[in-house]
Design brief:
By secondary structure, this protein is α+β, with helices and mostly antiparallel strands. The protein folds into two domains: 282 residues, SGNH hydrolase (Rossmann fold, 3-Layer(aba) Sandwich), CATH 3.40.50.1110; 222 residues, Jelly Rolls (Sandwich). The protein has 18 helices and 24 strands. Strands 4-3-6-1-7-8-9 form a seven-stranded mixed β-sheet, sandwiched between helices. Strands 10, 11, 14, 17, 19, 22 and 24 form a seven-stranded mixed β-sheet that branches. A six-stranded antiparallel β-sheet has the order 13-12-18-23-20-21, with no helix packed on it. Helix 6 packs across helix 18 and helix 12 runs parallel beside helix 13. The N terminus is likely disordered.
Length: 619
């Protein structure tokens, strides 16, 4: 669009020629100004956001409500939402977001007006997700304060370090610290984490090849966006141009935990690398005084003092005075979530476990959490007879060429057995016995299972069927209680009610709560439960081991209330409220929108302060 000055001159001429009245002139001028983001004659403000997974942002939109529960952050939530509760869309802030998988092999660019969804994007880098990073409130606050057209260029990939993938060009090649090099020299034949002497040249070559790859991707993408700003910001006015108004760096976790590059917690090398990074991005983008904000990693709050100091250190260097600032994100760490997280783990373990085992592998009948759920049908699970058959994969397509942990697969069963899980299937020729059906020795967490009521046999796979009679279905909820080492199918009256395709290390009965659609297959009278699973083995130990058992349980509404009340001993209502604000692990700031929203606003405030200090005329 043309500038407001040109528009006003045209309207002034029309008014003098009596083609429009003065009130219409005033209205038209105001309308043109409203329609043109550049009506004040200001260049497009461009901000660059870069880093690893925390810059991607793992805060799910569902955690927004938690922001409003704190009077200190409730006003921020109002800025983030429309009156109807939907996430705000910034009309004058447009995004170009380059991201992709850890290796950058499938990078994609997301474009559009800033709103929620420009956080971590998983397998779909070009589409809005259900997550935010610091960009959301950064852009909201910038739009509010500047009242100018804004473009944000964000590049972020998870799991990338400054010492390797983001390594700046002027930092030189990666070199092992002297202390680590001496350790390597003492182990020419290699050791844990140390390559053999003959492999070290390749190690260095691979390190050099990986060094700076994501730095270059970042710079190339920024240059691409700046080469054609209208592609990102449709109303861009080339006569006004653009201004590189700030760079925000939020990274650090991979360096924090890298004991090879930073032995004994000495992070001086990070400070050196970050100083080179600031110089290099300014040089490569031809912006020698571009404001630079260091988002100092605040994972674990006030801990990691040495790293946080090293990350903030460049801001104190004389050459960066007045144009680089460090923003400590540790104050935004949420201790309420931190305190609730371990209890959430204990809670999940309790509700995810239907029954535990004693040290000898027998059922623990004293666990207090089990009394609320009742086995459905007769005879009781421990008294039921099972029909079972063991078999191996015979079809070539079903055989494995080599060992892999993910071994669960559907195999071709012998002819005539295709409907083995249906209620009317004749299993009279199968073996019979009580469960668990097992083989070998399952030894884990102080529990040893090597004595089973029924022997699995030599085959890799097991088919099991059991019949039980139900006379009461007065339950509020139902679940499967299942003991299985590998993946499995569970069928109820011929219907698949659950499939698990991975493997489990815990010798205990898992709890799988059924939804209404799955529960509908449970009926009064005769019911048939069928299970398909495979055993487990290791390439180092040829012995196979397994155990398989399952039954259906129910809980009444009254008992569910009692169970919920008992579980408050583990996870209190206050803890549960705090965990509503979390959607991910601690190293992602708990995936908390409250934390990311505060960070984004703090980064914007720091960037604006630098703009004022450099004499920017936007204020």
């Amino acid at each position: 669009m043309r500038t407001m000055m040109g528009a006003v001159l045209l309207l002034e001429t029309a008014w003098k020629m009596k083609r429009i009245t003065k009130p219409k002139f005033i209205l038209a001028a105001a309308l043109l100004c409203f329609l043109s983001p550049n009506c004040f004659g200001q260049p497009l403000k461009v901000f660059i956001l870069a880093g690893q997974s925390n810059m991607e942002g793992h805060a799910e939109i569902r955690t927004f409500d938690y922001i409003g529960k704190d009077p200190a952050t409730a006003p921020l939530l109002k800025e983030m939402r429309n009156p109807d509760g939907t996430p705000r869309v910034c009309d004058n802030v447009w995004m170009s977001y380059l991201t992709g998988p850890y290796d950058g092999s499938a990078n994609g660019e997301g474009l559009g007006k800033l709103t929620a969804g420009f956080g971590e994007r998983g397998d779909n880098p070009t589409r809005l997700s259900n997550k935010i990073g610091p960009e959301f409130t950064f852009g909201i606050y910038m739009e509010k304060e500047l009242k100018e057209p804004i473009m944000i260029i964000k590049t972020a990939w998870g799991g990338r370090s400054l010492n390797t993938e983001f390594r700046p060009p002027s930092a030189g090649p990666y070199q092992l610290p002297r202390q680590i090099q001496d350790e390597w020299d003492r182990h020419p034949q290699g050791a844990h984490g140390i390559p053999k002497l003959e492999d070290r040249k390749k190690w260095q070559d691979d390190k050099d090849a990986a060094s700076g790859v994501f730095y270059r991707m970042m710079v190339e993408h920024v240059k691409k966006a700046l080469a054609d700003p209208a592609r990102v910001y449709p109303a861009y006015d080339p006569e006004q141009g653009y201004e590189l108004a700030g760079f925000v760096w939020l990274q650090g976790f991979n360096d924090l935990v890298d004991g090879q590059t930073y032995p004994n917690g000495n992070y001086d090398e990070y400070s050196r690398l970050l100083a080179h990074f600031i110089r290099d991005v300014r040089k490569d983008l031809d912006a020698p005084k571009m404001p630079f904000v260091i988002g100092v990693l605040g994972v674990e709050g006030e801990k990691n003092v040495s790293f946080r100091k090293a990350m903030a250190a460049p801001a104190e260097m004389p050459e960066f005075q007045g144009n680089v600032v460090a923003v400590d994100t540790a104050p935004f760490w949420d201790t309420a979530i931190e305190n609730a997280e371990p209890r959430q783990g204990e809670y999940n373990e309790i509700v995810g476990t239907a029954h535990t085992l004693q040290a000898d592998g027998t059922l623990d009948t004293e666990r207090k959490w089990d009394k609320f759920w009742k086995p459905i049908g007769k005879p009781l699970p421990q008294e039921r007879n099972w029909r079972y058959l063991t078999l191996d994969a015979t079809a070539a397509k079903d055989k494995l060429e080599e060992f892999t942990d993910r071994r669960f697969r559907d195999i071709t069963v012998p002819a005539g057995m295709e409907n083995w899980y249906q209620p009317d299937f004749d299993d009279s020729n199968w073996m019979a016995g009580k469960a668990p059906v097992g083989k070998g020795m399952w030894n884990h967490s102080g529990i040893t299972m090597n004595k089973f009521p029924s022997k699995w046999g030599e085959g890799e796979f097991l088919l099991m069927r059991s019949t039980f009679e139900v006379d009461n279905l007065d339950f509020d909820s139902c679940r499967i209680a299942i003991l299985a080492r590998q993946g499995f199918h569970v069928y109820l009256n011929g219907h698949n009610i659950h499939t698990y395709i991975w493997w489990q290390d815990k010798p205990q009965y898992g709890s799988i709560v059924l939804d209404k659609e799955q529960t509908q297959y449970l009926k009064k009278g005769k019911n048939v439960l069928a299970i398909y699973a495979n055993d487990q083995y290791s390439p180092d130990t040829p012995e196979h081991y397994a155990a398989l058992d399952a039954w259906i349980e129910g809980i009444t509404k009254a008992d569910q209330k009692k169970l919920d009340l008992a579980l408050e001993e583990v996870l209190s209502p206050k803890d549960r409220e705090a965990l509503q604000g979390a959607s991910n692990g601690g190293y992602h700031y708990f995936g908390s929108a409250k934390i990311f929203a505060q960070m984004g606003k703090a980064f914007a405030e720091a960037n604006l302060k630098l703009l004022k200090q450099t004499g920017n005329n936007s204020f």
